[in-house]
Hints:
Layout (H helix, E strand, L loop, with lengths): L3 E9 L7 H12 L2 E8 L5 H8 L6 E6 L13 E2 L1 H6 L4 E4 L5 E4 L2 H11 L8 E5 L3 H11 L7 E5 L3 H12 L7 E3 L13 E4 L23 E4 L8 H8 L3 E4 L1 H16 L5 H16 L1
Parallel strand pairs: 1-2, 1-3, 4-6, 7-8, 7-10, 8-9, 10-11, 11-12
Antiparallel strand pairs: 3-5, 5-6
Helix pairs in contact: 1-9, 4-5, 4-8, 8-9
Bound molecules: NADP nicotinamide-adenine-dinucleotide phosphate.
NADP nicotinamide-adenine-dinucleotide phosphate binds next to helix 5 and helix 8.
Amino acid sequence: MENEKSVYGLIGYPLSHSLSPLMHNAAFAGLDVDACYKLFPLEKEELDAFFEDLKKEDSTIFGLNVTVPYKERVLQYVDSLSPYAQKIKAINTIVITKDRKLVGFNTDGPGFLAHLAELDFSMENKRVAIVGAGGAARAIISSLCLLPERPQTIRIFDIDRDRARRLLSDLDENMDVGVAEVVKSIDDMNIEIADLLINATPIGMKKDDPCLIDPELIHGNMMVYDLIYNPAQTFLLQVAKEKGAQTANGLGMLFYQGVLAFQHWADIQLDQGIKDKMRESLEKGLTS
Ligand code: NAP
């Protein structure tokens, strides 16, 4: 990592409520590195010029995160991809080398897996039901399919069935997605016998959002993972808790994808003390 006035940041649109600056700036402060993390809310038309500037020798930007809606669009600007990013064709992290070469990574799926490992949840032979087939689901499903200890089944439902089918056929080009299946309704997800239910839709972010899943289907032997972290407890998580299920919100995934991104930029392993500062900053940011 460069240690003089280096800039890191997040590109996407819109970016109003991002917690990433808190987490990464906490790490810079903890490491005593003179760098900062900024938000770059960019409209589509601004991307070409932004990436052209990024390649210039005098640019002070050395690392980026990428969020909605650009995780796939920015592939055209990078010089190379990690083997995993190559497989899923979406990136959320860019490392910019000293000679201004751009290398793309994806830490969303690995971040999700790291959080589940922290929760001591093994995927081996598990029955997974995932609602939503957008960018987050793509990262999660691909990392599940690439695990040596794979789930037994992954049932995917999205209101846009073609989107879910496209997701699987895209991944099928580069990995074995045999355990995954697109289903036509929530009823076909077999939630009543699932070990892990994942909400990968934005349903639950708004106060008056309905419960995504019929509460009758949720049971005490499952884990319910909601990718949403604000609010910390969605209606779905509240119901799951009442039913005795293990629950988790998406703050852990956000944290781990950030740690992994930072480690790519810095080319170091962060020690536990720095990771704790990053996590505390996220938790504080949510409650403030
Ligand atoms: P996205 O690309 O918009 O995908 C969401 C998908 O869910 C869309 O295809 C959407 O269809 C579908 N959907 C909406 N309502 C549905 C319903 N009732 N039943 C079934 N499918 C439904 O979003 P994303 O980027 O994947 O993000 C999904 C969620 O994960 C968001 O809440 C986001 O904030 C969260 N997230 C969290 C993290 C983390 O680190 N914790 C990381 C990434 C994303 P339509 O487009 O037709 O509505």
